[in-house]
Specification:
Layout: E1 11-19, H1 21-24, E2 35-41, E3 43-44, E4 47-48, H2 61-67, H3 69-73, H4 75-81, E5 87-94, E6 100-102, H5 106-113, E7 120-127, E8 132-137, H6 143-152, H7 155-158, E9 159-163, E10 169-172, E11 178-180, E12 184-191, E13 197-200, H8 216-220, E14 231-232, E15 242-246, E16 251-264, E17 271-284, E18 287-292, E19 296-299, E20 305-318
Antiparallel strand pairs: 1-2, 2-5, 3-4, 5-12, 6-13, 7-10, 7-12, 8-9, 8-11, 10-14, 15-16, 16-20, 17-18, 17-19, 17-20
């Protein structure tokens, strides 16, 4: 059965902190003024991506994987994860600050939620002049200081705030306390997990006057209280794959495309491309596929040779 570059119907999520940039900046079909997330590729339960193009249009990603597990996932990924798709890809629009939160590691997530943990990375696609992120503690902390800072509502004072601009990247290992700040559009790559412990939400209420649930106690033994260095520097050599992150969960490269790049790879893993700026075409066996800013595509593992051409900034993700 013919496989080809797959795109999916975006799964749009309203969030109390969301806005409209996913439409104005990334051309997502949002209808709400508070759309915070577009899940681009997901197999999270009740949020499984549906194919939006080509012969397999209308099938879920899980259905396609069940039919062609090695051809889609890759020999190595299938051996490691079976028919589970191990990553989740999103775009986020933070009109307001997100809650301060933390994600548990694999063992804790498995024990408590029968889930993967949530190691993730952020690529800043757009940032207002005063945009910032919260990533970890300024100085080594402790459970006692963490609890007291919440009681006193001073937790912001002990956390590390980073001013950000387009192209900045942060790699967030599990246990890192973090928050995306207002005025940012983010491409997020993470393990397949929706487990988040919300620590502090600025005493916000929703349209009905309700506050959101906090998970202060659950977070207590999930937090890494050490100082972390999450910001990643990387090369930007044109028409090459420049490595940003290489961890056991995923490898992410940055491709500044200006012209063309011939891609030859093995069949051990699928590849995902996120077009974070510009436009490009993908030539596979003489057939052209067209992509613009905000498009995300899944290259099945059996597609081992193709060419990309255009003028774009692209994130390239696979499991190595």
């Amino acid at each position: 059965m013919k496989l080809y570059p797959l795109q999916f119907q975006p799964i749009l999520k309203e969030r109390i902190w969301g806005g409209t940039k996913l439409k104005t900046y990334l051309n997502k079909p949002i209808t709400s003024e508070i759309t915070g997330e577009s899940w681009e590729i997901s197999t999270v339960e009740n949020d499984v991506s549906v194919i939006a193009n080509g012969f397999h249009e209308g099938k879920s990603l899980n259905e396609l994987i069940n039919e062609f597990p090695e051809a889609v996932l890759g020999t190595k990924v299938y051996k490691q994860f079976g028919k589970q798709f191990p990553l989740l890809f999103k775009y986020l629009d933070a009109r307001e600050d997100l809650s301060i939160q933390v994600h548990p590691h694999d063992e804790l997530a498995k024990e408590r939620h029968n889930s993967f943990g949530k190691t993730e990375m952020w690529y800043v696609m757009q940032a207002d002049d005063d945009a910032r992120l919260i990533v970890g503690f300024k100085e080594k902390s402790s459970p006692e200081e963490y609890l007291k800072s919440l009681e006193d509502k001073t937790i912001i004072d002990i956390l590390d705030t980073k001013n950000v601009k387009k192209g900045d990247v942060f790699f967030l290992e599990t246990g890192t306390v973090h928050a995306i700040g207002a005025g940012t559009v983010i491409a997020e790559i993470q393990q397949t997990s929706d487990i988040t412990y919300r620590i502090y939400d600025f005493d916000r209420v929703d349209a009905s006057g309700n506050t959101r649930e906090l998970h202060v106690d659950l977070a207590l033994d999930a937090i890494n209280y050490e100082v972390v260095n999450a910001e990643k520097s990387y090369l930007k050599v044109e028409n090459e794959s420049n490595e940003i992150v290489n961890c056991k969960y995923f490898t992410t490269n940055f491709i500044p495309l200006d012209g063309n790049l011939a891609v030859v790879k093995n069949n051990e893993s699928f590849t995902v491309y996120m077009c974070v700026e510009g436009f490009f075409d993908l030539n596979y066996k003489g057939e052209l596929f067209h992509y613009n800013t905000g498009d995300t595509l899944l290259i099945p593992a059996e597609m081992t040779e193709f060419e990309i051409l255009g003028k774009a900034s692209i994130l390239e993700i696979y499991i190595s």
